Amino acid sequence: MKPEGAIVDVQTHKAAFDALMERHAPLMAAAIEAVQTRRNWSPYKDSPSSKIHGTEKPEAGRKAFEAQRGKPFRLEQPGVIGRTGGEISPYTGEALRIDYPQSAPEALIAAAQAAMEDWREVAPRLRIALCCEMSQRLYERNFEMAHGIMHVTGQSYTQAFSGSGPNALDRGIEALAYAAKAMADVPESATWHRTFGREDVALEKTYRLVPRGIGLVICCASFPTWNAYPAMFASLATGNAVIVKPHPIAILPMAIVVQTCRQVLADYGLDPNLVTLATDTLDAPVAQSFIDHPAVQIIDFTGSPRYGSHLERTVTGKQLFTETAGVNSVVLHSTHSLAETARAIARAASLFSAQMCTSPQTVYIPENGIVADGAHASFDDVAQALISAIDEIANDPAMAAGIMGAVQAQASVDLIKKLEENLHATPGARVLRAAQPYVHPDFPKARTLTPLVVVVSPSHQALYAEEHFGPVLFLVTAKDGDAAIAEATGLARERGAISSYIYATDEDFIDRSVGAYERAGANLSINLHGAMWINFAAAYSDYHVTGLNPAGNACLADLAFVAGRFRIVQRRRPMTTRANGMDGQK
Amino acid sequence: MKPEGAIVDVQTHKAAFDALMERHAPLMAAAIEAVQTRRNWSPYKDSPSSKIHGTEKPEAGRKAFEAQRGKPFRLEQPGVIGRTGGEISPYTGEALRIDYPQSAPEALIAAAQAAMEDWREVAPRLRIALCCEMSQRLYERNFEMAHGIMHVTGQSYTQAFSGSGPNALDRGIEALAYAAKAMADVPESATWHRTFGREDVALEKTYRLVPRGIGLVICCASFPTWNAYPAMFASLATGNAVIVKPHPIAILPMAIVVQTCRQVLADYGLDPNLVTLATDTLDAPVAQSFIDHPAVQIIDFTGSPRYGSHLERTVTGKQLFTETAGVNSVVLHSTHSLAETARAIARAASLFSAQMCTSPQTVYIPENGIVADGAHASFDDVAQALISAIDEIANDPAMAAGIMGAVQAQASVDLIKKLEENLHATPGARVLRAAQPYVHPDFPKARTLTPLVVVVSPSHQALYAEEHFGPVLFLVTAKDGDAAIAEATGLARERGAISSYIYATDEDFIDRSVGAYERAGANLSINLHGAMWINFAAAYSDYHVTGLNPAGNACLADLAFVAGRFRIVQRRRPMTTRANGMDGQK
Fold first, then answer.
1. Contact (Cβ atoms closer than 8 angstroms) between residue A292 and residue A315
2. Would you state the pLDDT for residue A428?
3. Which residues of B touch A212 (CB under 8 A)?
């Protein structure tokens, strides 16, 4: 397991290490099987139901969150130069009054480098087991996490529990599975025999997996854990240290993550500075100082297309993985049930008030209407069905609370209201539904906003061809279904798309459409209805982000997401004993 | 095999495709097994001996080369705007008088994009079989290739045959094996079942492998095929078109490669413009215009550290693979046989007049001498042994011709002679052996140069810490073995190294050295003697270039070399028939 190098405490912890590897081996084996079959699987339950978890755990999680409010967050980091924090709950409008240590970037880098000295010598199998353990501990803290996620991002309680909990941990375990596969592809050693002239040459070769360098994980504000877990686990598993840079308005979830990971490392006698938190403020951002540092060799970024494309244009000689955003579209060509289709689209457009990378923003509808329920439905019939389906959610406070949650930033509310004003003044645009708040049943002061719905034509493309981060649905009049596909895929290629959707009962139409999406590098969902959110991305099964359009370059997860995070260094020498020589002669 | 899209001639060629896939399947299976065990294997013979090939093939190859001299090279490319060429044989000093088509870059890019439209729809297995066929045809042309290689690069006939033939094709097949593994990791489809609430959701998912974009392969002048084959096959297998940019002073080998690949494509009814040649001149280089083009998404570069690092600093948003050069070192600590060790080092320093990326340039020797053959050998004893071993080659014209070959460029001769002058004038440096030509037995006008050997101390580091492209060996006085390791690994880390060598009988010394090389990201050969060239890199077994030091970022080959050359685009939809539903319930 450890041909050379030494961890100080390896003998002390040997029994614990062995037990840990044994405990998590079945999980990793199942995860590897899952990514290969892409079947549904998870080691976790993604419902917060007390039928699953009992009543104590949910309550303990809530209390843990409440106990943290108004207190300094405990994180013994190196190089602390001050404390920061200033998160405001979108549900209460009140400050969480939690502060976090702020460390000097150079101190975090030096500490990460020091921690990597031991970590690089830890066998990949043990590193993976330790990451599994971190995931398990995070799952155990998930009720606390759910409240933390809610009150910094605005996600609803159930979404915070599932989407930012097990669904996100699953993406982390998935990345671990790929890291395990990529590392297992490199044998530890080999024997090599060949005759040169009359001489038999026998060499023994050793192949060492060497980490690339510190991984910087830059998290977004609205869904921080979902991309962070795969990035963190992919880098950690391959031997790298990780510095987590949370968005300054959503620190708590990543502070919980870093605290948990550090505890696991400490419990097993390893240097907790392998995982640290790099807090900053909106006024004095620190990301670039890490990005420019030569010790930082891997950058995982989730966030705005603006900063993401800046990184894509400027970072050289490092591994850069990005997920930003695009303009996701629905093409509505025909349907067996307009009501069901409208409900599916309305739910996706309402979920977390469209603050998701998979939220649809445009719906293309043929201007002369569609075939729906075996009859003709006019453009306005379709538009009305969509608005009814949105209203059904918006007008039911309990349902709205569960689906829409809250709007994280006032900027999103301002942006959508400004857009609404502009649209009222735009010739040819028809505002069908105003963006209005709903009253949250538990949090009357919650910052909420139900979707703006507007009819536009392709002449307004400049308006809808970029992401508006907030609840808005553009209903675009298309000449016909094929014209809609042409425009939707063209925009996906040029402006980016993470999820695309079509509804059609005509198989010929579907057949001639799928190639256009494939060429646009756009993942496509066809005729999804029913209980599953159409923008649900299943770990182990759905490849997320193609890397072929401007919405990002990182697929969560595939071999390309992990294979460059480590390198191979070999050595070779003549076989030293006859016995070895015989062993190698196969 | 082809769920959608269409190749015009797919039915016409179906039987031929099937036969081709069947024919090459065992080769690919064996290659995959070889990269997994890293054992010695090759489908080809790397000796030009007539005992293997008979007498006709060698003669026919020579004649084919001779017939090409003085004639236009036949390559029906698009967008031809002129013809170029001007290669001069290092063996005869005469111009080959072969000219090649020069195509407008835009025309080659447009033709490559058009060719990719069909190629992306070709099943990966068939693409791989077609690459195997290209390799086979190139192997069949290898005697002709060997003469071509000789007369543009200066490699000896045997090295041109083996190193630029089967050994290079093996690296290509190796890259194909990795491409096959990475693509096979993505299933073509999956069924997915999950319960949401009370609803059973069943989805069928399709995962399509999509090429990233045109691959540009920039070849070096001294060893063009060795890096070109893996780059070309890795890009082609994953669905991309390839534009080959040969060095303007070494076009012929890559013209033969491109011609051969195009013939295979044409034979199977595919668009030959999938592989094209982008010639240019030293005065008007075209590489950058391809690099900057958005359709070019993959760049494989082999050549000077200067241009390589320019690319590493400037290319963003594309896959960039580089192999440049470093300063390879030998640390001589102790040996069982000074004569054998000296011979091993002398051969490596003499092979192809040190114009190889694996040639050693420095030999660190403890200033107080070493333990050799069980006794003490002084620094000067060791130096003398090295010079004797070099002289043994240099003074035997037949051996010199077979090992040293010729020097490709007068610039290398000038550079080494200038260096020799400088060293004579450098206080503390001792020139022990002058760089002199030897008289080639077959080509009296050959541009030859035997190694310059000079003793320097660490105070001269500026002199030996960069690559001098030509035959020179710096014998560096080290305080002791450990000091030598410290300096050698420090330079490897800072200046790059592709191959490092140590000789030591002291296992403790070896044990404490290997970690330093690993940390420097330097591949290490320990105590290699005998018939195998110590700088021989075996395909399927030796990972070449770690990517952890400035000598390049591309490992030939590993999963990271191939995994980013394609992307995954998925689609999903509800399962349509009950039968499918049952099939999926496993």
1. no
2. 97
3. 547-548
The structure's pTM equals: 0.96
Q: Say how many C-beta atoms besides its own lie within 10 A of residue B286's C-beta.
A: 19
Helix axes A224-237, A166-184, angle to 10 degrees: 20
Integer-rounded Cα Rg, in Å, for chain A is 26
- Residues comprising chain B, all counted: 586
Angle at B400 between CA B372 and CA B50, to 5 degrees: 110
Joined tokens for residue B212: 């990233």
Q: What is the 3-state secondary structure (H, E, C) of B113-167?
A: HHHHHHHCCCCHHHHHHHHHHHHHHHHHCHHHHHHHHHHHHCCCHHHHHHCCCHH
User: Residue B487, Cα to own-chain centre: how many angstroms?
Assistant: 27
Encoded amino acid at B170, one letter: D
Cα angle B430, B434, B437; round to 5: 170
How is residue B123 written in tokens? Answer: 């099943």
Q: Do B571 and A185 touch (CB under 8 A)?
A: no
CB within 8 Å of A55: residues ≥ 6 apart: none
* pLDDT digits 0-9 by tens, A390-435: 999 999 999 999 999 999 999 999 999 999 999 999 999 999 999 9
Alpha helices in A322-464 (DSSP H): 338-350, 379-394, 397-403, 410-424, 461-464
First vs last Cα of chain B: how many Å apart? 23
Phi-psi map region of A146: left, alpha, beta (phi>0 left; psi -120 to 50 alpha): alpha
- The pLDDT-based confidence of A328 (bands split at 50, 70, 90) is very high
Which of the 8 DSSP states describes residue B72? B
CATH 3.40.605.10 intervals, chain A: 14-40+62-87+96-188+212-324+552-569
Q: Which of A217, A202, A156, A287 is nearest to A574 (CA)?
A: A202
Helix (H, G, I), strand (E, B) or coil at B217: strand
- Chain B contacts of A567, Cβ < 8 Å? 521, 546-548, 555, 560
**Contacts B36 to A, Cβ<8 Å:** 185, 187
What percent of chain A has pLDDT above 90? Answer: 96
Q: What is the CATH number of domain A328-526?
A: 3.40.309.10
Q: What is the pLDDT of residue A392?
A: 98
CA distance A448 to A434: 13
The answer, for B93 touching chain A at a CB cutoff of 8 Å, is no
Q: What share of chain A is helix, strand, coil (3-state, %, to 5)?
A: 45, 20, 35
pLDDT for res A11:
74
H/E element, B311: helix B305-314
User: How do B328-332 and B500-503 pair as beta strands?
Assistant: parallel
CA distance A315 to B316: 7
Q: Are A70 and A86 contacting, i.e. CB atoms less than 8 angstroms apart?
A: no
Rounded CA-CA distance A43/A53 in Å is: 14
Write down the CATH number for the domain with range B14-324+552-569: 3.40.605.10
Q: Rounded to whole angstroms, what are the CA distances from A266 to A9, A134, A271, B486?
A: 11, 12, 6, 33
Cβ separation B574–A315 shorter than 8 A: no
**Three-class SS of residue A25?**
helix
Q: Out of 3.40.50.150, 3.20.20.80, 3.20.20.70, 3.40.605.10, select the CATH number for domain A14-40+62-87+96-188+212-324+552-569.
A: 3.40.605.10
φ, ψ for residue A82 (rounded to 5)? 170, -175
Given A207, A573, A586, which is nearest B527 (Cβ)? A573
Q: Residue A548 corresponds to which tokens in the numbers above?
A: 């072929």
Task: Provide the b/e sequence for B311-329 (b: ≥16 CB within 10 Å).
Answer: bbeebebbbbbbbbbbbbb
pLDDT tens readout for residues B146-204: 999 999 999 999 999 999 999 999 999 999 999 999 999 999 999 999 999 999 999 99
Contact residues for B66 (Cβ-Cβ < 8 A; gap 6+): B147
Average pLDDT rounded to a whole number, residues A56-64: 98
